[in-house]
Amino acid sequence: MNRKVPTRKCIGCGELKEKRNLVRIVRTKEGEITVDATGKKNGRGAYICKSTECLKKAVKTKGLDRSFKTAIPASVYELLEKEMEELE
Fold first, then answer.
1. pLDDT one-digit tens code per residue, 12-65
2. Long-range contact list for 49-53, CB < 8 A, 24+ apart?
3. What is the 3-state composition of the chain as percent helix, strand, coil, each rounded to the nearest 5?
């Protein structure tokens, strides 16, 4: 039996990729935005490729702002960039 591989769209480049090849960014009910390494945290999730290039594109196109339907402060993007660099 062939199992369906879950895919998600990157908020940076807009490409559909396998979920396991993407990083999940989550916004909790408290409004805290973090990188979700486990993929199991509660909250609204957005997916992005494991590259700082895609993160930069997401910043430029306001991909996270759209996904979370809220304005994302620059400090959050800086924090995400640091966390992404650790993952690379």
1. 999 999 999 999 999 999 988 888 888 899 999 999 998 888 888 988 999 989
2. 49/10, 49/12, 49/13, 49/15, 49/17, 49/21, 49/22, 49/23, 50/21, 50/22, 50/23, 50/84, 50/87, 50/88, 51/12, 51/84, 51/88, 52/81, 52/84, 52/85, 52/88, 53/12
3. 40, 25, 35
Give domain 7-87's CATH number out of 3.30.70.3040, 3.20.20.70, 3.30.365.10, 3.30.1230.10: 3.30.1230.10
Domain edges within the chain? 7-87
- Identify which of 73, 75, 76 has the alpha carbon closest to the alpha carbon of residue 25: 76
